[in-house]
Structure formats: C-alpha cells, structure tokens
Design brief:
The complex is a heterotrimer of chains A (about 280), B (about 280) and C (about 325). Chain A contains 13 helices and no strands. Chain A is mainly alpha-helical. Chain A has one domain: ABC transporter involved in vitamin B12 uptake, BtuC, CATH 1.10.3470.10. In chain A, helix 2 packs parallel to helix 7, helix 6 packs across helix 10 and helix 10 packs across helix 12. Chain C is built from 11 helices and 8 strands. By secondary structure, chain C is α/β, with parallel strands linked by helices. Chain C folds into 2 domains: about 130 residues, Rossmann fold; about 110 residues, Rossmann fold. In chain C, helix 2 links the parallel strand 1 and strand 2. Chain C is globular and about 60 Å long. The chains are: A mainly alpha (about 280), B alpha/beta (about 280), C alpha/beta (about 325). Chains B and C meet through loops of B and loops of C.
C-alpha cells in the first residue's frame, strides 16, 4: 500500500520536464500568495488582473519585435503598474473604470496583434493566456527562481515599512516614510510576480493565485506575517496537488492548481471560526 | 483682524525664556487644486504649549496640520518646525481623523503601536529590546497594556483612539498633532486623553489639537487658535474666547455663559445648553 | 484640477505606449516574408481558382500554368485545422470559378464559409473517394478519450493524403480533369502539363526511396507533431511511433507527454519532427527530455519559394538527416 502511493508520487518525477514544471509551480504558488497578501488586504486584485492582461500584450509585442518574451512582459507590466499606481494615488478608487477600459483595450490590442502580425506560433502565445507548465526549460526555472527570490528579498527587507504603508498610508507618510515610493514599489513587486506567474497559470488565472491562497490564510489567522506564511503554504500546496491532479487526470495544470486553491478556500470558509473575517473579505 | 494685528498678537506669545518657537507659521496661504483653504495664517507656538485649533468643519484645520507636517506645500508664506522648513519626520506624531485605516487588517494592538517605532528604526533594522520597552510604556500610558494581543478591528472607537495615541507616543515625538481626537468618543476617554495631553505638555511635548466642538475644551488649552480659512484669533483662551471672535469664526450667533470658571457656549437664545 | 491633470497625463502616457507598441508590431509584421502565395500573374482571361491549402497552389499552377490565377485561403504558416476564415475569404470565394479543397474533414470551417459566400464556384474535393487509413498511430499506450476524439474528427480517415506521392499524382489528375471540363479550350494543355508533372513526381519518388534506403531499418521510426504523416510513413516504409498533439489545438497533458517520452526512449527513435506552424516548445521539451534532435517537416505549407516537390524533397532530406 505504501509502495503504491510512493510510486504514485514518484512516477511523474522521473521526467526532467515535469520536475521543472513542479518546481516552477511551487515557487509561483508561494510567491503569488506572499505578494497576494497585500493584494487581498488592499483590494489590488483588479489591478493584478489588469497587469496580467497588459503583460500578455507585452509578450506579443516582444515576440513581434524579436525581444525576449519575459522582458516584454516585464516592461509592459512595470509601465502599466507605475501608471496605474500614479492614477490610483491621485484620484482614488473611482479609477476602476478607467483601469478596466485601459487593460481590456490593451489586451484586445494584444489579441489583434497576435493574429494580424504573426503568421505562425499562434499556439505558442496562447499558452500564455492559459498557462503552460510543460515547457519550463532550465533557464526558465532559473529566471523564475531569481525573480521570485528578488521579490521575496524585498518583502523581507522592507517588511515593516510595507506593512505600515499598507495599514495606514497617511500616518506612515507623515512620520517620514516615503509613502508614495513604497506604494509604487509594491506595485512593482506585483508586476514582477504577475510576469513570473503568467507562464505557469496563464494570464486568465493569475489573479486567482494572487487572491485565493492568501484569502484562505486570512480566514485562519489574525497576524499579518502569519497570513503571509500560511498563504505561501496554501499556495505551494495547491500547486503541488494541482500538479499531480493534472498529471493523473490529464487536465490542464493551470486550471487544476486554481481549482485546488478554490476548494481549499471553500473548505476553510465553511469550517472557519472567524466568521467576521469572512464578512470583511466579502465586503472588500 | 488685520494682518498686522495678527502678527502683533503672534509676537506677543513668545515664550518667557525667549527661546525659538517650536512651530512658526508665517502668512501661510495654501490649499488643494488651486482652491485656497488657508489664507495668510500666522502664529507661533512655544515649547510645551497645548494649543487648541478651533473652527467649524471645513475651516482648514486638517489642511493646517498637513502643512505643518510638510505633506502640503505652502503657496505663500512658510512653516518652520524648530527652525527648519516643514517636512515629514518622526519627531512630529500625527493622529488624523482615522478614516484611511483598514480595520480588517490582521494586526494586533501591539503591532500597531510598534509601527510607531518604524520611522525611528530606519530601513533594514528590526525592533529591539528598547523598542519593545517603549511600546510597553506607551501602552501603559494609555492604559491598553492588557489588550495588546487583540486585533485592531475588535476594539471600540475609544480604544482605537487610545491605541493610535500610544503609537504616536511610541514615536518619542516632540510635537503631537491630533485631529479631532475626541469626536465620537465617550466622555471618560475624552477626559483621559486630555489628562494625558496635559501631562505630556508639562514634560516638554508640544501639542496641537484640532476640534470643531466648543463645549468642553476651551479652558484646557494654553493657547487657542480660532481658524476659519483665516486666523480670527490666537492667544490664551480667556482672551480669545469672545463672542465677537467666535461668531466670526463660526459664522453663527453664539452666546457665552460664564459659570464660575467654566465657559458654556450656546448657539442662540432658543437652543439647548451644552455643558461640560 | 491638479489630480485630474496628472491622471490624464498618466493615461496619455499609457495610450502613447500602446500606440508605439502597435507601430512596432506593424513594422515587425511588415518585415515578415509573406508566406501566403500571391495569385499567379493575371492573364485577363485566366480562370480564377481558389485552393484551401498553400501546398495545393503549386499543384494547380503546374497543371494550369498561366491559364489560371490561383490563390490560397489559408495563409502560409497557419494551422488549417483551426483556421478562422475572414470576410475577405468569402469575397475571394465569390469571385472564383472553382475551389479545390482536400475534403475528408480537413477543412471543417469550409462548408459554412461556402454557404455564406453564396459562391457559384464549383467545389472539388481532391481526396474524395480515395482509400484512406483510419487512425492507428502505433501509439500503443494512449487509449480512451484522446483516441476517440481524434477518430471522431477524422471519421472518413486521415485526410493528409497528398504527402504520399501516389495520391499527390491522383490529385494532379483530378485537377487537370476539372480544369479541362471548365475550360475545354485548354483541356489538352492541362492534360499534357499534368502528365509532365506526374512524371516529375515519379522521378522524385524514386530518388526519395533511394534516400530512405540509406536509413538503417531499425531507425526508421517517425514521431511527428500532428498526425499528418501516416500516408507518407506507410509509403516510405517508416514506422509512425507517435504523435505529440493528438488533435490540433489540444495540447497534450503532462502524462501523455511523459508516455511519449518513454516510447521514444524505448523504441530508440533518433529524431522528432515538428512543423513551422506549431509551437516548437513542446517538441523542444520532448527533445530535451529524451536527448533526440528536432527537425522540421512540412505538410500543408511549402517553405518559402518552394513548390510541392520542393517541399517533399525537403521533407525527405530532413527525415534522412534525422534518422540516418
């Protein structure tokens, strides 16, 4: 019995490309949850979605111009993130409409460019819409690991400043912290996270990976650093189980991972003692 | 009041020891989106003063605080804090009207008060023993030390105010700016906060308290600034609290009833009394 | 309003970036060589012919020469299985006199397009009625849904007949016959051209068989990207070990890809073959996993500048290069 389950666990790991895919998914699951803690609590989910869609167009443009796709995605997401951040700071939440119009328009541009400008490789770029964990090369894994490491390093080093600015931006700024810079930094971290994750789960599902595991953690604990750690755990767990499910049930990996994360959330929401937290989440 | 009279009045409140005023505001004109909120405001605050900034809603009290904090640039005139141009710094602690805070944030009372230490720590440093000590002391000063592990969202309005005050104290500030600290707060807490402020000012802190509420507070301040876009009066409350100045500030007809040492302000002969 | 102005500025900046991106993309697109063949030089009285796939253009031109004007519906380098026709295609169809398609379920999108185009062109299915192979990939381990799905897609059998020179010759004959019926004045020319071209095909076939003969028998194993080569494989005595994408547009699951990797290793397949219109990443993943090389084959679009025979010659060259 034990040997059967060990076999089940080890079978996919015989293949290099699957090991890399699993490693990438685990990293992305944890990273998204860490940055996603800010997203859930600050209501950035919409912005995260916008960045993912804009990153896609960055990929298309990079492809047409012959640049590395990751660079194109990063450039587009960073420009968009900073742009949205500047608008957000000045005008506030009513800019949801402006952001929505902007990012759908940019995404549509990407789709049109993809079919008009490219005679080949339509499938290649579509893999960024829905995720393709099967084609992670060693260099891709290295890129994902380095960028994730960078983001996590910044979060750790500037943990208290980012916390203060997120909780109470006015007083944080009044006491001398560079509030505007820190908020833009947060958006930059979000942009990098989105770009890293688009490969595994695709543009459409990135926002789910940002929101669901950390929302689950939020239902269980009331200290910020614990939400972050628990969220990372849930994200990695969803990636692991989703990966194996996708292998044995022959279903796309991105969808499987998000389904596991969502099921986990539903389970915790039903069992959780922190009803108040659930209500607060719904209100956001 | 003419400008020259204002400046004369301001200069009469130099501290007895002739030291530099902690806060110096000279002919400050500023606002938002090209709309002026403050015009030609001039006053100076000595060290250890407990100043009440009194005016109706929308009179520019919060704007004045932002200018003092360096969050808002002066269009004309200047603001000097201890001789330096105003800019955000840890020495000035700010308690705004707390609408911008996210009450669902997973932080405890302790976490929030510890945030007061962050600007003092600088980047990359972790809170140490001394910081924990200061947080503990701040919590004791506001009598919230037993609630340190409670999430911020579970507190009442009065408790939240005390926690934010503790955070401000943890900053080790030399200047405190409190914007409407007692509106919507129960009477015992109001009383407690003012007692604490008086103690702090007695030990060298300088505090500015903004309020639109006339009822209790006038006599607790060492100076009062009457503000409604322009400065309508600045000085000790017994000199500044006149019907004429109050009417001009609040654009209403007010009556002052002196009841021994107490001052009671009423809106018109037909209104009910508001008493401390 | 100060804040409104800066938000306007930010939005303007983003709009400028978007427009710049569009310009760059157009520049990039213009730089791409136009793989879709243009209509042959127009003789005023030439017959307008439309074909579905680019590979058929050279077949029709070989028969019709300058008596015909040929254009293809599917642009070069696009997957014909999942092609989405444009309004311009309907226009082209409406102006045509004859449309040559492969049939056998390859151009599923065509019937709707023909109906909406309201064209009175004659539609000829080049593959109709020919003996077909039904799907047996030699892909032993795949069972259940993917097989059933693919079989459903090609109910009449695998449509990629023209990659077997025998069937290609039959296509040429049918083209000549049709053109002769529509343009009796040129019937003789058409038949002569067809016979000449068929002779070329036969000459090519002889050369190809000799080339294939140079591959050691145990290495004559083919793994292709999609299932376009069963007739090709059977004609040249190659074993079709497996296919990466079982039905076009549906990527393999992790397990399917893993099983294919096993199969490649077990059977000692020396190379895997992808096609230009498909995502090379999957093939590369498979190649990296198994240590084999990746080469290209062409099925429905000849490489730039080549005709049908040129395309087949390249295919043979690549097969020999990979497997020998």
């Amino acid at each position: 019995m034990v040997s059967v389950s060990v076999d089940l666990l080890l079978d996919p790991l015989r293949y290099g490309f699957l090991v890399r895919g699993l490693a990438a998914a685990l990293l992305i699951g944890a990273l998204c949850a860490v940055v996603g803690t800010y997203v859930v609590l600050k209501g950035f989910a919409f912005i995260g979605d916008a960045l993912a869609h804009i990153a896609f167009t960055g990929i298309v443009v990079a492809f047409l111009s012959g640049f590395a796709l990751t660079l194109g995605a990063l450039a587009a997401a960073l420009v968009a993130g900073l742009g949205i951040g500047l608008i957000h700071r000045r005008v506030g939440l009513s800019t949801d409409t402006a952001i929505g119009i902007l990012f759908s328009g940019v995404f549509a541009l990407g789709l049109v460019l993809m079919s008009v400008g490219i005679k080949t490789y339509t499938v290649d770029l579509f893999s960024y819409v829905f995720g393709d964990i099967l084609s992670v090369r060693a260099v891709d894994l290295l890129t994902i690991a380095c960028l994730s490491g960078l983001v996590l390093l910044v979060v750790v080093l500037l943990y208290k400043e980012l916390l203060f600015v997120s909780f109470d931006p006015v007083v944080a700024e009044a006491s001398g912290l560079p509030g505007g810079v820190l908020q833009l930094l947060l958006l930059t971290l979000l942009s990098v996270t989105v770009v890293v994750s688009v490969q595994a789960v695709g543009v459409v599902l990135v926002v789910a990976m940002l929101v669901t595991p950390s929302a689950t953690a939020y239902l269980l604990t009331d200290r910020f650093h614990r939400v972050m750690l628990a969220g990372a755990g849930f994200g990695a767990f969803s990636a692991l189980v989703g990966f194996y499910l996708s292998y044995y049930l022959n279903v796309p990996s991105g969808g499987a991972i998000v389904l596991v994360a969502s099921a986990l959330f539903a389970l915790v929401a039903m069992l959780s003692p922190r009803r108040a937290a659930l209500r607060l989440l719904v209100r956001r | 009041m003419s400008v020259s009279a204002q400046i004369e009045l301001a200069s009469r409140v130099q501290p007895a020891d002739g030291g530099e005023p902690v806060i110096l505001v000279e002919r400050l004109t500023t606002g938002y989106h090209r709309v002026p909120i403050l015009e030609e405001v001039t006053f100076s605050v000595p060290r250890g003063a407990l100043v009440g900034v009194i005016g109706p809603n929308g009179s520019g009290k919060s704007t004045l605080f932002r200018a003092i904090l360096g969050l808002l640039r002066a269009w004309q005139g200047r603001v000097l804090i201890e001789g330096q141009p105003a800019r955000p710094r840890p020495e000035i602690a700010y308690l705004p009207q707390s609408e911008t805070v996210d009450w669902g944030f997973p932080v405890t009372v302790w976490d929030v008060v510890m945030m007061g230490r962050y600007p003092r720590l600088g980047f990359l440093r972790r809170p140490g023993a001394r910081d924990r000590e200061l947080v503990e002391r701040a919590l004791e000063q506001v009598r919230m030390q037993d609630e340190r592990n409670r999430p911020i969202g579970a507190l009442s309005g009065g408790q939240r105010q005390r926690v934010f005050l503790a955070r401000a104290l943890a900053q080790e500030p030399s200047i405190l700016l409190l914007d409407e600290p007692v509106s919507g707060v129960d009477a015992p807490t109001q009383h407690f906060i003012f007692e604490l402020l008086e103690q702090l000012c007695a030990s060298g802190c300088t505090a500015l308290v903004a309020s639109h509420d006339l009822s209790c507070v006038a006599q607790r301040f060492s100076q009062v600034l009457l503000l409604n876009r322009r400065m309508h009066g600045f000085g000790p409350p017994e000199r500044v609290f006149t019907e004429e100045l109050l009417n001009r500030t609040f654009n209403m007809h007010l009556m002052l009833l002196r009841y021994g040492e107490r001052v009671i302000v009423v809106e018109s002969p037909d209104d009910g009394l508001r008493e401390c | 309003m100060e804040s409104a102005r800066s938000s306007e500025r930010a939005l303007t900046l983003l709009a400028v970036v978007a427009v710049m991106a569009l310009l760059v993309a157009c520049g990039g697109a213009r730089g791409e060589p136009e793989a879709s063949p243009e209509p042959s030089p127009a003789v005023e009285t030439s017959l307008p012919v439309v074909v579905s796939l680019p590979v058929f253009v050279s077949l029709v031109e070989a028969v019709g020469a300058d008596r015909v004007r040929v254009s293809a519906l599917v642009p070069g380098g696009t997957d014909p299985h999942t092609y989405q026709p444009t309004p311009r295609d309907a226009q082209v169809l409406a102006d045509a006199e004859v449309v040559f398609v492969n049939g056998l379920g390859l151009e599923e999108w065509l019937s709707d397009l023909l109906a909406s185009a309201g064209s009175d062109a004659r539609v000829v299915e080049l593959g109709a009625g020919l003996a077909t192979l039904h799907d047996e990939h030699g892909h032993e381990e795949s069972e259940g849904t993917p097989e059933a799905e693919h079989a459903h897609q090609h109910e009449e059998g695998n449509p990629h007949l023209w990659l077997d020179p025998y069937y290609a010759a039959e296509y040429v004959r049918r083209i000549a016959q049709t053109l002769g019926e529509l343009d009796p004045a040129g019937a003789v020319t058409y038949r002569e051209n067809a016979e000449r071209y068929i002779a070329e095909i036969e000459a090519f076939d002889a050369w190809a068989k000799e080339q294939i003969g140079r591959i050691p028998p145990e290495r004559r194993k083919l793994v292709t990207f999609h299932d376009a080569f069963p007739y090709f494989a059977e004609h040249y005595g190659l074993e079709l070990v497996g296919v990466i994408v079982l039905s076009p547009g549906r990527e393999p699951s992790p397990q399917e890809l893993a099983r294919l990797a096993d199969l490649i290793r077990q059977q000692g397949v020396p190379a895997i073959f992808t096609e230009p219109q498909f995502n090379p990443k999957l093939a590369e993943t498979l190649a990296r996993e198994t240590g084999v090389v990746v080469l290209e084959l062409y099925s429905d679009t000849p490489p730039a500048g080549e005709d049908f025979l040129g395309m087949m010659r390249r295919n043979i060259e690549h097969v020999v290069e990979g497997l020998a």
